[in-house]
Amino acid sequence: MTTPSAREPLLGTPFSLATMATAVLDQRGIVIGWNTAAEKLYGHTADDALGKPARKFFVPIDGRPLFDPDSPAESWGETRTMRGRGGSLVRTVLYVLQLGPKGANAAWAIISIAADQMERWATDQAILAGLFTQAPIALTVYGPDSRVNWVNNALEGQTGLALHEWAGRYIQDILPEGEIISPELRGRRLESVIEQVFRTGEPVVDLHYRSPTPAGPTHQRVWSCSYFRLQDAEGHCLGVCESAFTITERYETQRRLTLLSRSSSIGGTLDVTRTSEELVAVVVPDFADAAWVDLAEPVLTGEEPAPWHASQQLRRVTQGNTPGQAAATPPLVNLPAGDQQLVLPLKAGGATLGLVTLLRSPPRAPFNDADRALAEELVAHTAVCLDNARRYAHEHATALLLQHSLLPQEPPEPTAVETAHYYAPTAGPTGVGGDWYDVIPLSGARVGLAVGDVVGHGLHAAVTMGRLRTTVRALAALDLAPDELLTRLDDLVGQAGMGTQSAGESSADQAVCARCLYAVYDPVSRRCSVASAGHLPPVLAAPDEPAIPLDIPVGPPLGIGGLPFECAEFDIAENSMLALFTDGLVVDTQHDFDAGVAGLCRILSRYPELSPADVRDRIVESKIPADAQDDVALLLVRVHSLADDNMASWRVDPDPAQVARARASAMVQLARWDLSAVSFVVELIVSELVTNAIRYGSPPVHLRLLRDQDRALICEVSDGSHTSPHLQRARLDEEGGRGLFLVAQLTDQWGTRYTREGKTIWTEVPIRLGDVVGGDALSA
């Protein structure tokens, strides 16, 4: 019999002769060979064993003889307990082999393997056999070149390919449509992952791989794969092992939950188109290969959609496809639905807003009941968001229209000022706000300038703004000083609740307080009076001087009550420019108002010679972003003074005889101004007003004429009394009582304003039409 090589495995085991305890016996049973492994197993050295009978060393404790030279017999794989050196017990698996024919010197070999080693090997073999034939986990062994070397039965059953169809091939050649879908490894080839594990020894755990298989080419399957390097006892790399098990159902369930959590991103903008795009971004490509959103035309304009019918006019708002996939374009309506396609209506509040179409293409699995339920939930959520966006668009358009109608479309242009204005609503979902401005002509060629801000957004803020602007105009008509006007406005706001949240209404879009700044410019005295109710001071750009904010006391916002407002007065040089603005113009992302105001001052200082309209354009271009988060209102005013040769005034002694002198002085001045056409009317006005001041008023009495260029002639009579004149109609038999009635009929405007020194009755007579008006009035 041929003696095996020292490195050759024996009897199908992984053990070689070099590693097994071996004793060689002659025909008489005398030990003639004893290797190192035998010495380690039994404890006897070669010197102890050689030349001695084998039975001295191989002593079974069960009493059965191990070896009888007279009755030789081969023994294969018997487990025997032997007695070793010093009486120790050694469990071994014994192999007795005949080495040569009878008569030869070396006749037998006794090979011993420690029983625990053999048992571990047998267990390992059983485990390997179980993994190959019974394990539900698919196992694949890749060689150093990343090609398949071996697969177990589980993988053969799942893919429909036998070992010989796998061996020697790359995984991408076998499953060409497979892809790694783990986010951190998406886009990599599987072979590159295997090469990485083989090179570094670092395992990769729970890699998700999706692919159809030859056993199911029309359905995608998802596996959780882990990879680790294989190496022998000496540390040599042999390949990479892959363990994989199917997680398709679990993956789909987790993906549905992820999609539901991502649905919170839908509808955050209150924009119909953007909301539709957000739905498509959520479902493609994780849930569908393609998606389309088609909406009814009224939805896009914020109107209520008409009742749904088969020929409903729809507009495609957005569509999306899986990257790399050709874009499909289905018809807008009457789309056939099937396992690969879902067509779902967008319904909200009983109205159908449009359709959502979802498409899957093979080899992706068709939609199942769980997919349909998820799609219906996503579409229902989107429909609510679209309806909210539609309602917001309608309210936003209504509020914007209302605000534009409430703001001055073309503010009046009094002689004393040049103006330019700008208003921009809030960008984004917060809606229209309550910023406003106004230019109000006052008596005596004076001009009222107002700017305000209702804090909050939406229709309520726009309405509140309109109420405040109307109230300011009504109070300005009383010729009140700025501080007194704000005091009365504050009282009215507190009483009527203007600028405060209405009971039972949400505070999300309601105005919660209001601010206002009011200024009066007098071109005769070249002074400006300013008062503020919580509003930013205006900026003044005087000729040849840098622009600076006016130093004025800022009172509390309107509606708080109980605190006074203070008025500040300033001399303003000819051609100076005033900038009145709301905080939306100067606020930045850090809410640094000082920096914003400083930037506005730089712009005003840079262009001293430009017109208000040109300066406004520079400010809008440099300071107002397209996505401004607050309303912006800006009013630029360039002031002009009334020239001395357009003014004349006289002090009138409180004597009825002085009425004629006052009348004559006025006629002389009209002749100098070449205004004889209105002399009759002015003569009558002067006579009536001066007479009333002397008769019913208190000294001192003053008469003043102002020529407001070619627009009007202003006649003012002042006295020291605060008694208010009354317009009355005299009976036919009464001699007096017709003075103010005639004045009212012959003038364009008239009124009374009060000062700390008394009152002034003023009238305005149109210059070009004065003679016609006067004639008509007298004939009447």
Your description of this structure?
- The chain contains 19 helices and 32 strands.
- The protein is of the alpha+beta class and 780 residues long.
- It is rod-shaped, with a radius of gyration of 52 Å.
Overall mean pLDDT: 82
Task: Quickly count the helices.
Answer: 19
Overall 3D geometry?
rod-shaped
Distance between the termini: 154 Å
Question: What proportion of the residues form beta strands (DSSP E)?
Answer: 25-35%
Biggest sheet: strand arrangement: 2-1-6-5-4-3
Using only C-alpha atoms, the radius of gyration works out to 52 Å
Helix percentage range: 25-40%
Oligomer: single chain
Give start-end ranges of low-pLDDT stretches: 1-9, 499-512, 730-736, 769-780
For the largest beta-sheet, the strand count, sense and barrel status come to: 6 strands, antiparallel
How many beta strands in the DSSP annotation? Answer: 32
Q: What class would the helix/strand composition place it in?
A: alpha+beta
Highlighted features:
780 residues, alpha+beta, six-stranded antiparallel sheet, 19 helices, disordered N terminus
Per-chain topology:
Elements: E1 21-26, E2 31-34, H1 36-42, H2 46-49, E3 59-60, E4 75-83, E5 89-98, E6 106-114, H3 115-133, E7 138-142, E8 148-151, H4 153-159, H5 163-166, H6 171-174, E9 179-180, H7 190-200, E10 204-213, E11 216-231, E12 237-246, H8 248-262, H9 272-283, E13 290-296, H10 297-300, E14 314-321, E15 341-348, E16 351-359, H11 369-406, E17 417-424, E18 433-441, E19 447-457, H12 459-476, H13 482-496, E20 513-522, E21 527-533, E22 539-541, E23 548-549, E24 554-555, E25 568-571, E26 577-581, H14 593-606, H15 612-623, E27 632-639, E28 647-652, H16 658-672, H17 679-696, E29 701-708, E30 712-719, H18 739-746, E31 749-755, E32 758-766, H19 770-779
Parallel strand pairs: 21-24
Antiparallel strand pairs: 1-2, 1-6, 3-4, 4-5, 5-6, 7-8, 7-12, 9-10, 10-11, 11-12, 13-14, 13-16, 15-16, 17-27, 18-19, 19-20, 20-21, 21-25, 22-23, 22-26, 26-27, 28-29, 29-30, 30-32, 31-32
Helix pairs in contact: 9-11, 11-12, 12-13, 14-15, 16-17, 17-18
